[in-house]
Each structure stands twice: as structure tokens, then as C-alpha cells.
Backbone:
């Protein structure tokens, strides 16, 4: 059965639907040797190329939806590559074959906190769409005098350059004088919206941390630039929010789980080791690459790899999901 090209590519992990629609409109995608058009329907056996490179279109039953929780620090960019060589949020993520991580929204360079990544571009696209009104909660440190009247105005709504905006909820979080903390909630993800709302009242945001996306909270103890794989229950919570069918497989083995404290303690040690190695003067490129690989693998205790099968089976010992396939039991 044929489906829209951008939907198939997004589901196979080649980007969010919005990103793929832009590439198709720009003439960067071809189907069976012919430049694709937006909205074109294709079959699963079509030969699709993006920027001249053939991409893999996976059958629905072979796809496993994975979601990562990432603790973004200030200073990292939400882009795959930076021409100036600055660190990006993709540098520390686990490597995959035949798929790639798609960010669920963005955080600007000076914002830290919770960022979700998934292998399912359709899931990412729906989670970002304003029609679903998914809550995002931020902890904000504000520099300047904040009055009750200002809080009422921000709750009622103000007009920004890209339209009206308002906080769905504002709570005081502590602090004294002209440095105070607040917890604010939005149901959309416009560019720098939290900062612009506060600036409309003549005060500045000196610290901004995203602490929650829907009911998924940034877990305490997860080190900055560290990641953790969401459980099957958490993945299906996100899928249910945007009316997608539940996933039946997971890369986490519930029978081999370990405490959060143990997982994140190991992740912190690996992060510190990576920083020490990358900061050594005169380090060879080979040493740097080795350090990068170690840091990429730091938190892989959440992704369990089964023991390789005997050679007679032809198994290569690759990580396999646990549970049922959409077509039946593995």
C-alpha cells in the first residue's frame, strides 16, 4: 500500500516530517530516479535518494520506536553539525545503523535541561505540533523586580512579534530581591518564547532550564550531556498523547534493570573522564577519537545487548529489541 513520501521517510528515521517536506520542496529528494514532489505517494519498495544518497525505507513491522531523555547543558547547539566546530547535542548520543535520532523541538544555546530524541520522525513531528497542546515546564531565574501585576499580565497574555502568547501557569520558586526563580508552563514551542515573554515586562532571564515535557520529567542525577533510554511505558505514553499506536518492543530488558543512582553514577564518571582526555594538550587525533567513542558509549547500560548466538545461526550479535513485533511474536 502506498503512503505519502514524507510520512514513510519520517517513520524510517530520516528526519521530522517538517524537515523532510522542506527537502522535498527544495528538490533534494528523488524517487526511482525522478525528482519527488510534495505529497507524492510511494510504495515500500521504491528507491528513494536524499541529496543523491540512497536511503533505507524500513517495513512497518521492522521499526522500533526508541526515545531518549537527554540533559542538555548550556553551550551546546541543537544542530547536527556546526561549521565553527562548537559542541552539539548530537555529539554524545549513541550511534545507530540504518536510522538516526530526531530531536523533539529545540532549546537555544543558553538554555539547558530536558530534550527528547526519537527514531520515529512521525512521533517527533506530532509532539512538536501546537495542535496537541503538550505541556512544557521551565525553571526560570529572572533578573529584575517582578510584581504581581506583571505575573497577571503574563498569564493573561501579551502580543509578541509573532503573535499573542501567555504562560499557562506561573509559580514562584524562591529567591530574594532582584534574582527570583519561577516555574512556568507553555503548551507550544516557539523560538525563545519564555525569554521573550519575560522581556516584554522589562526583566531579563538569567537562567532557563526545561524540567518537564508532558509527564516526562528530567530525572535527578542524570549528568549534563548524559542520556537515558525511556521505558516502553514512557514511550507509549508519548505515542498515546499524539494518537499513534502503541509500541510493543523495547531496547530495555525489565529483568536486568539497575538503580537510577548506579546508572547515573557511572555516566558521571565517564563524562569526567571524557572531559579530562579531550582537554589534554597535544593529544593526538587518535586519542581524541578514542575518547569520543568512550563518551558516546558512557550511558549504554540502559541499552542491553543480548549474548551473540552460535555462529551456525548467522547472528552477528547486534542489539535486538525485546518483546513482540507488530506482526507477531519474535
Residues:
Amino acid at each position: 500500500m502506498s503512503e505519502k513520501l514524507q510520512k514513510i521517510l519520517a517513520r524510517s528515521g530520516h528526519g521530522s516530517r517538517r524537515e523532510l517536506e522542506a527537502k522535498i520542496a527544495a528538490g533534494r529528494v528523488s524517487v526511482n530516479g525522478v525528482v519527488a514532489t510534495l505529497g507524492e505517494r510511494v510504495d515500500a519498495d521504491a528507491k528513494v535518494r536524499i541529496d543523491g544518497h540512497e536511503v533505507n525505507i524500513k517495513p512497518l513491522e521492522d521499526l522500533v520506536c526508541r526515545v531518549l531523555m537527554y540533559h542538555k547543558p548550556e553551550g551546546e547547539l541543537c544542530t547536527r553539525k556546526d561549521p565553527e566546530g562548537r559542541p552539539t547535542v548530537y555529539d554524545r548520543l549513541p550511534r545507530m545503523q540504518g536510522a538516526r535520532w530526531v530531536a523533539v523541538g529545540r532549546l537555544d544555546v543558553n538554555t539547558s535541561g530536558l530534550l527528547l530524541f526519537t527514531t520515529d520522525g512521525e512521533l517527533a513531528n506530532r509532539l512538536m505540533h501546537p495542535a496537541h497542546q503538550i505541556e512544557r515546564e521551565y525553571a526560570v531565574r529572572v533578573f529584575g523586580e517582578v510584581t504581581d501585576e506583571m505575573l497577571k499580565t503574563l498569564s493573561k497574555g501579551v502580543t509578541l512579534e509573532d503573535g499573542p502568547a501567555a504562560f499557562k501557569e506561573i509559580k514562584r520558586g524562591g529567591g530574594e530581591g532582584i534574582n527570583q526563580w519561577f516555574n512556568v508552563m507553555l503548551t507550544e514551542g516557539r523560538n525563545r518564547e519564555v525569554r521573550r515573554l519575560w522581556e516584554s515586562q522589562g526583566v531579563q532571564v538569567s537562567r532557563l532550564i526545561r524540567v518537564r515535557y508532558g509527564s516526562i520529567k528530567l530525572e535527578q542525577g542524570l549528568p549534563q550531556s548524559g542520556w537515558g533510554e525511556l521505558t516502553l511505558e514512557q514511550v507509549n505514553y508519548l505515542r498515546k498523547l499524539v494518537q499513534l499506536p502503541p509500541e510493543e518492543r523495547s531496547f530495555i530488558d525489565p529483568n536486568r534493570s539497575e538503580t537510577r543512582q548506579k546508572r547515573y553514577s557511572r555516566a558521571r564518571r565517564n563524562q569526567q573522564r571524557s572531559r579530562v582526555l579531550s582537554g589534554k594538550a597535544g593529544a593526538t587525533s587518535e586519542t581524541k577519537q578514542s575518547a569520543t567513542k568512550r563518551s558516546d558509549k558512557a550511558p549504554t547500560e540502559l541499552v542491553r545487548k543480548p549474548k551473540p548466538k552460535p555462529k551456525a545461526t548467522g547472528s552477528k550479535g547486534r542489539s535486538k529489541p525485546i518483546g513482540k513485533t507488530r506482526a507477531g511474536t519474535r
Remarks:
- The longest strand covers residues 204-213.
- Confidence is low (pLDDT under 50) at residues 280-308, 313-318, 325-330.
